């Protein structure tokens, strides 16, 4: 058994956007380390298939969740409390994006990105974070982005706006909960070579720009993000709150 494989044994961890490339790998890593995973995603996504493929699948739970809906958040947290009577970890992973620039973006698309990627993250902290506090404390990990801190490729304006807000909301919430047993941190991926990303961009100018501006000269892997999340979720990070963990191949230091 690898060192750290059961760091999360006995903990209940809720993951949003769990059937995507990053979300699925995060759910698998948390399950491998012993957590009971509450995997959530939109209606029509393969949540049951994900649960069936996780280590210790019988201890996990799947639920549909539109993170931009406060009513749905309240319903999912009630179901989690009914099933487990506790919640220890929230991974705010679900998000929506747009590639449009500051002059090309449309108001409707901009608002949709904000509703999901920014407001949805806040609602997760409001409802799941409160449950974590009430049941003994734990960890909130917000999946942010390098685009929450730097300009990236000069497009994706709405996504950058949302993730910039997630970055500072994380610090604000960390201060709110600093003496209440809930740690709040953000993980900032660079460009990660998920299947979805590679299908869309491999061989394009955008793909070349991602590589050219990453000092390590390669895209990251979903496993790299999952490893960072697992660290922040567990007790090894018990004195870490309000921090930004960049997993970006050096993008933000160049």
Structure description:
With 254 residues, the protein is an alpha/beta fold. Helices cover 43% and strands 14% of the residues. It has eight helices and seven strands; from the N terminus they run βαβαβαβαβαβαααβ. The protein has helices at 21-32, 47-53, 70-84, 107-134, 157-176, 195-201, 205-212, 222-233; strands at 12-15, 36-41, 61-64, 89-92, 138-143, 182-189, 244-247. A seven-stranded parallel beta sheet has the order 3-2-1-4-5-6-7, sandwiched between helices. The chain starts with 11 loop residues before the first strand and ends in a 7-residue tail after the last strand. 45% of the residues are buried. The model has no long low-confidence stretch (mean pLDDT 94).
SSE blueprint and pairings:
Elements: E1 12-15, H1 21-32, E2 36-41, H2 47-53, E3 61-64, H3 70-84, E4 89-92, H4 107-134, E5 138-143, H5 157-176, E6 182-189, H6 195-201, H7 205-212, H8 222-233, E7 244-247
Parallel strand pairs: 1-2, 1-4, 2-3, 4-5, 5-6, 6-7
Helix pairs in contact: 1-8, 3-4, 4-5
